[in-house]
Amino acid sequence: MFENEEFDLEDIDLEELDPEGYFKEKEKQQQKNEKLLQEFRDWLQGKGLTDKTVKKHVENIDFYINEYLTYYEVQGPEEDVYEIASFLGDWFVRKAMWASKTAIKDYCAGFKKFYKFLEEKGMITEEDYKELLSIIKERKSDWLQIVSRYDDPAADIEDVWDF
Predict the structure, then answer these.
(1) Does pTM top 0.90 for this prediction?
(2) What are the E-state strand segments in the chain?
(3) Mind giving me the DSSP string for 41-88?
(4) Nearest 5°: CA angle at 124, between 75 and 59?
(5) How far is CA 82 from CA 21, 129, 132, in A?
(6) What keywords were assigned to this record (predicted)?
(7) Which value, in Å, is the radius of gyration of the alpha carbons in the chain?
(8) How high is the mean pLDDT of the chain?
(9) Which residues does 57 contact at the CB level (< 8 Å), separation at least 6?
(10) Model pLDDT for residues 144-160, shown as the tens digit of each residue
């Protein structure tokens, strides 16, 4: 197809490939997210967390808001606290090579802090924050079982998602 032709990404017409503007919308959301992540980093540091812990939480939330929340359609992190259940119970386990019990626990801790930060900023309601805490409390053991079964070579992949 491109034999003996020089191919330049700048020659691609994104309007033609993306008539609904997904990529522009995603880029716009990711720019908002960068500002939000910096504010979150500052907020965590203000809480006295170690640099290592701050880095871990920011990296995890970055992956969630810039990869998962823009994967199927572009969403802001304040739009739906229920998304964490689909993320930790399915998408993260299948898409992230580093998915593990420890990673699930780290994400749960990070989500609690991030959504508390969003609540304090007025981006979500207290009810949304309480709902997030409830989701984590009720579903965390399921997510840990899913990642264990997914990583078990003896497990039938059909049984991984069966609850």
Answers:
(1) no
(2) none
(3) HHHHHHTT--HHHHHHHHHHHHHHHHTGGGTSS---TTS-TTHHHHII
(4) 60
(5) 25, 11, 7
(6) DNA-binding
(7) 19
(8) 89
(9) 40, 44, 49, 106, 109, 110, 113, 114
(10) 999 998 877 676 656 55
